[in-house]
């Protein structure tokens, strides 16, 4: 998956003339902070160089994860066409761009972001390129959401991991109250990211939400550690990305986990493929999360006829049936 051309051009022009050595150092610091899930009272993207490092090394991957999560949401609710978006921890506007790509008719967006440096980059990238009216709000989403209007789509991507765990239930409750239709949460596809999604899922189901995706049910998750639910998207690496990360391969696989919870039920909830398919001649093994609440591997062979054909086409993250 690639960034939309206009976003790519905007990012390239913001990164023009930035010395690669400085970008490399900033990317290293940023990546160490993210990996450690450091919560020391400082924002990871408080400084301009950290924002530039994010644009060069993280934005393509978070965009791909967010866009794939929106695709799953749209697959579960084909009638959903949000006119309004409220995105918290908006960063450089990743969700705004991905939502516009999914639903170009989006009319207005409110983006809450604590860091002035990344808000500035996000505003400059969106200006003149995004048709929806976008208002960027400076604030801490754990305390400053009062007075904000409800939106049809409410989202938080790669944000919960930056918030102290004790503040999460109140934040989730607030986001759900601001959700007129559907709430989408995206997190890194790590065991810790999955645990945060599971906690939000339990809380939202308790509040009456319908799960649209990825789970085809509302019963407790059938997976147990060390297993964990996550998906992946292959992302092309730009030349600058390769230089900054000293990477040789021209792509990376971004692992992510998400939850789309809605006030409206999905018309149907088929099984979902929750691991890379294992193929062989005339057969394929899919690990499926089933509508009844179970999960496990199932072998499909030519004898299954059309079901086999569908199973052979299904990829990790797709629905089957
Ligand atoms: C990893 S970035 C993700 C940005 C964007 N959502 C994306 O997917 O690319 C997390 C963003 O959340 C912001 N953030 C963290 N805690 C916040 C809070 N309490 N209130 C508002 N924004 C916050 C950070 O400044 C950062 O821009």
Describe this structure in words.
The protein has 321 residues and is α/β, with parallel strands linked by helices. It has 2 domains: 5-262, Rossmann fold (3-Layer(aba) Sandwich), CATH 3.40.50; 271-320, no CATH class. Helices cover 36% and strands 24% of the residues. The protein contains 10 helices and 13 strands. The protein has helices spanning 5-15, 20-35, 48-57, 59-76, 94-102, 116-126, 168-177, 191-206, 239-245, 306-313; strands spanning 84-88, 108-113, 133-138, 151-157, 179-188, 210-213, 231-236, 251-262, 271-273, 278-280, 283-289, 295-301, 319-320. The strands form 2 sheets. Strands 1, 2, 3, 4, 5, 6, 7 and 8 form an 8-stranded mixed beta sheet that branches. Strands 9, 10, 11, 12 and 13 form a 5-stranded antiparallel beta sheet that branches. A hairpin with a 2-residue loop joins strand 10 (278-280) and strand 11 (283-289). Helix 2 crosses helix 3 (48-57) and helix 4 (59-76) runs parallel beside helix 5. The longest helix is centred in the N-terminal third of the chain and has 18 residues, at 59-76. The protein is globular, with a radius of gyration of 20 Å. 42% of the residues are buried. The mean pLDDT is 94.
